[in-house]
Amino acid sequence: LETGLWFFLLILAAASAAVYLLIRSSLLIIGSDWRFNEWRRQRRSIRARRQTTRGFLALAQGQWRRAERQLRTSAEASDTPLINYLAAARAAYEQGKPDATDELLKAASQSTKGSELAVGITQVQLLQSRGQNEQALAVLLRLRQQNPKHAYVLKLLVKTYQDLEDWVALNDLL
Fold first, then answer.
1. Residue 20's CB: how many other CB atoms inside 10 A?
2. Quick check: helix, strand or coil at residue 21?
């Protein structure tokens, strides 16, 4: 059988498409397409958990750059992105990267509904360790408005007033 090259390529493309559609439809009929997607999702979750663990180990060992990278990349596929983002923010802070720290805190706040208190407390702790007590006070006052009887927020507020030597405000708080 003699044919032209273009006709042969056209027949080959049509046959390949037919075989692909046949395999795809048979997988859809027997349900293994769903199983394959579920398997891929589980593998991604397992990989994210491993990377999170490695990121926390790096954080505990003081390997800030490595910890930030691993925690940031595993946050999106993780079951607990808030924890990953907060730990990555801590690692970015330890590297002296305030913009990355603020970006990660913002991502943490957006990742989980109802995480404002946890993100705010972490932000206050980082601001206090930077010596930015005025900014920490502003965040604490906002947190206290939302959670007036939260014990740790009150404790941080007492510490901030002491650092600022604002005895009148501390007396009013007590």
1. 10
2. helix
